[in-house]
Amino acid sequence: MSLVTRQSTLDALGLRTPTLEQPWTKDEFMDALAKAKASGKYEFAFDPGTAWTGEWYPYAFSPFLQSFGGDIIDRTTYKSAEGKLNGDAGVAFGEWWQGLFKDGYAQATQDPADRDAGFNSGKYAFSWNGNWAAIGTLAAYDDVLFLPAPDFGAGPKIGAASWQFGVSAKSAHPDGAAKFIEFALQDKYLAAFSDGIGLIPATASAAALTENYKPGGKLAVFFDLSAKQALVRPVTPGYVVEAKVFEKALADIANGASVADTLDAAVDEIDADIEKNGNYGF
Amino acid sequence: MASKFTRSNRVGWLMAGPAAFLIAAFVVLPFIFAIILSFTNQRLISPNPTEFIGLSNYEQLLGVGVLSLEPERDAAGAVLRDAEGVPSYKALRSYTRNNPEYPQFDGMREWFSFQQGDNRTYVLARDVVFMKAIVNTFIFVIVVAPVQAGLALVLALLINQRLKGINLFRAIYFMPVVVSIVVVSLLWRFIYDGSSGLLNNLLGALSFGAIPKVDWLGNPSTALGAIIAMSIWQAVGFHMVIWLSGLQTISPSLYEAAAIEGSSKWQVFRYVTWPGLRNTAVLILIVITMQAFSLFSQIDVMTGGGPLDSTQTIVFQAVERGYGKQDISGGSTISVILFVIVLSISLLQRWLTREKN
Fold first, then answer.
1. Range of the domain at A44
2. Residues B327, A273: C-beta atoms closer than 8 Å
3. Which among A109, A248, A277 has the least Cβ separation from residue B46?
């Protein structure tokens, strides 16, 4: 994922172009939003993608929480979210998140059509989106920038995800299955997939064979962003519930609920679920 | 105990067999399962063995408590007040988390509270979202049942006339019923859109810009009302047809007698039409109530339970909990609770509308 904008937007608003080594700080980011709002040229300064309810909320917005220093769950034990989701960092994140909507920088309720086409038609100054939507944006403008995530204090973070092949332990033909996987993971097929659907290829050698991700390619920047900033979501079976609880907490905070109470209630629910399931094996 | 009914009706039983089997498999069996699962801690996918936990699920959903707090006082005994003169109270969380003096409140959250003089009484609930879901569902039923039934009756009276082209109107009023509720919800989501929706544009055009744009589905005070309006619009045609069939069973000789006696339209309605519609009214009331309690699709498509839990409903919570959070025993518990509520209300309605001889 990256912060999508245009070079002309940065120039018009007089902003420094952030680099991977020197991303924007929280103050620089909020200053950028304030300038975009003041310019009056955009319907909203920032498009985080609140129309995409579901897994998008934890995938896209928990990196912000992690950049503040909090997290959805305590990854040292995976048994509780107390202090991580509702500690000082969590509350700071919650107040920043609520401020985005209260101060009019983003919409809490968004039409899905605006999410799909809004940035490409000039509605928003900045958009928080992933590489899958990049091709459409590249077609709309010729000076698109994929900027690194802002650093809210604990380092900039973006989401990470991948697809895996697996062979069941009870498989009757493990060798055949393994051979098939080996065959399917050849670079030429990975490259074909990437060219077809725009996702990041799994190996650097496959990337060199693709249109967009070869060195110097239009989307090659996402490689570096993934390498430097990506943090996987919590690795626990309890994530199913944690994701839903986190999504609801974010939606409620965006709509104006009390930040501390909402995060406390979310922690209570996550902890209760973990306890109910025997700590999920941890 | 082979009676004439079972013996000489073998072909009938064979024909009904497949349907009876399907109903048993897809309605009766899950019903029994739901009741059994609500007493366990069954998960959708889990290596942990399932255990019986008794009424723990019900307690976790329906548990409520009342706590009355006195305001904090300073050393002299005067009440501490904040800038606006509101007394300050000890944080509720200190009573509801790890407080050995109040074990019954452990894990509860504030549902609502009210002032009694200087004291503040808090009503706590173990699952505040579920309580809000129950309240919202009841509000929905209380509004939709009379409004939809009344509107359907008005429409039925209108289309009961022998006018040319009346069938066209009958078709138009019935059409929303035929369209899938999911499709209707998606369309109305666009109509209700806060920035560029059809409703806002229409209101703005009609009032020459005097009425501001309202985010119908994003505002907690308008979201449920918006969904009520859309649901009534979608389902009114169905009940209109039922009223129409009831109207057409009233003997025309009664209307002729009323015309001869010179009754006004209102008198005709009150003394001829309405008594004749009694059975239809009972049926429609019970059907609307049952259908209203199962409000789900519109919420799932349009608002997802938000904003701020203003459109949470019982069935939506059952699906969220059972499939979203994979706690199928909790979802089953909610279903059983809903069954008990609907059954009680239906029995109550039947008792209230019984034939008094």
1. 2-161+233-281
2. yes
3. A277
